Amino acid sequence: MRPLWLCRVCAAAWPCPPARLLLTMQYRRDRVGLSVYLASQLFEATADLLKLNPDAVPDARELFERFVAWTARPPSGERI
Question: Of 35, 21, 33, which is closest to residue 68 (Cα–Cα)?
Answer without folding.
Answer: 35
